[in-house]
Amino acid sequence: MAVVPTRAGGQLFAAGLSLQGQVPGILRGTRERKVVAMAGGGYHSLAVTEEGRLIAAGLDDYEQVTGIFAAARGRAVAAVAGGGFHSLAVTRDGLLLGAGKDHNRQVSGLLEAARGGKVTAVAAGSVHSLAVTDEGDLLGAGHDGDRQVSGILAAARGGQVAAAAAGDFHSLAVTRDGRLLAAGRDEDGQVSGILAAAGDAKVVAVSAAALQSLALTDDGRLLAAGRDGNHQVSGIVRAAQGRKIAAIAAGYLHSLAVTRDGALLGAGKDGDGQVSGILAEAKDRTVTLVAAGGFHSLAVAAPDGPRGREVRVDLAGVRDPARAVTLQFLREPDGLDVRMESGAPARDFAIREGAPVQLVVRREEEVVANGSVYFTYEEPTGVVGVDTRASRFPSFLTCTGHGANRFTFAWSG
User: Fold this and answer.
1) How would you classify the pairing of strands 264-268 and 309-316?
2) pTM value?
3) Closest-CA residue to 236 (of 200, 270, 282, 286)
4) What's the pLDDT tens digit per position in 85-144?
5) 131 near 115, Cβ under 8 Å?
6) Cα maximum dimension of the chain
7) Residue 310: helix, strand or coil by DSSP?
8) What CA–CA distance (Å, rounded) separates 197 from 192?
9) Which residues contact 35 (CB under 8 A, 6 or more apart)?
10) d(Cα 226, Cα 206) in Å, to the nearest integer?
11) CB 99 within 8 A of CB 68
12) HEC string of 242-256?
């Protein structure tokens, strides 16, 4: 399962099968630490803190826990992936690390393939592994009985790959221009089905486990295909219907997704609480990152309150005092509740990028319109913008940006 780290850390929470310590162990290791990346293996868990520290817990029969921890000692880690019984990690300077079961050279073979190169992303299946370099090359090693390695490498030849995912016996990859690639065992349509679902859409993320495949398009649509005996495919598609999705994760028999406003969705086998348990933990939290292990789930929640992105907003006056309105900016999870009167001085308040702020227009106490606005944030420049595609402005309400994170809302109703 390929894992891309978030830019801002948050609290890790987990649920599901715990007999090998993959849930309580990773929670103890990350207590009071902010997590920026994580992965679930068959029966173990990996996490990366804001400082780049690798934390691992769970089944260690093949040193998939102690081995990767030792390999990462003294190094700042950026990304991780957990396979059936092996682990992969990438340092911030692009060095690939690996440990665990290697009977198909899913560890040593990939380390050899990556030698001398700079790795940016990794994926670990049950018995094979994939990696992506900074030049867009796809690397692979391990069991190839269904051409899950040679097939995906052939499909990627001549293109530049951005991300990859590995299931039991199949592989997925995404090119930098958004083209979905797939190869390997296809008895349940985990290859042909996901390719058909994607069509000509631009794909931005993939996840695979066991015999199912998930993909995410640039417009927030979740795609899924493969074995569906526990509704891990049809269930997550139903849960995501009509919602914009920001992150996806496939477990052995369950699937997870995160909406753009931070809601966690789940479907599939739930015998160990890997679905219901993580959904209960996520209640009233804004989820930013999700991962699925064999029979357990991991998620990261944004810190309480906004992330400190500030905007200055004013509400243009209405000429007729009898038709003056109040505009409310409301986001309950962050404690945001700002009310502005027509023509009043501008107000400063903090926002969370990529999360909906509710807009409520009132005349006296009567609600005359409502909608939502999504703010964006560019890390390098510190510029706040408005995502007009995701936002839903009510009729008669417009928004104009003036630079320096200043915005004017105007009501003409």
Assistant:
1) unpaired
2) 0.75
3) 270
4) 999 999 999 999 999 999 999 999 999 999 999 999 999 999 999 999 999 999 999 999
5) no
6) 78
7) strand
8) 9
9) 9, 10, 11, 12, 47, 48, 49, 50, 289, 300
10) 14
11) yes
12) CCCEEEEEECCCEEE
